[in-house]
Amino acid sequence: MLNLILKAIALVVFIISAIWWYKSPGYDSVIAALTSLSAFIALFFISDSDDKGNKMNQRSGNNSTLYQSSGPMNIR
Q1: Which of 6, 14, 69, 70 is placed for a possible disulfide with 36 were both Cys, Cβ 3.0 to 4.6 Å?
Q2: Which spans are transmembrane here (predicted)?
């Protein structure tokens, strides 16, 4: 959902900057148009983090103990 909203925003920004480039050609408008276009294209290669379903998996030997933590951990 967030990815769709970001794509829509990037597309609107690209259209506005393309109109600006047409009305007033210059480095500012070209850079704005190219940046917004590249952001729009890059959003197609990025997926929402909810889609991946990140899971943790651990394996150990027969005679070992597994410890799982979300941060630094010291075992003594």
Answers
A1: 14
A2: 5-23, 29-46
Which residues, including other chains, have CB under 8 Å from residue 69's CB and lie 6 or more apart?
none
Phi, psi for 42 (deg, rounded to 5): -65, -30
∠ Cα 49 55 57 (to 5°): 155
Task: Quick: pLDDT tens for 18-27.
Answer: 999 999 989 9
The first and second tokens of residue 18, run together, are: 């393309």
Give pLDDT tens digits for 21-60.
999 989 999 999 999 999 999 988 886 655 555 566 667 7
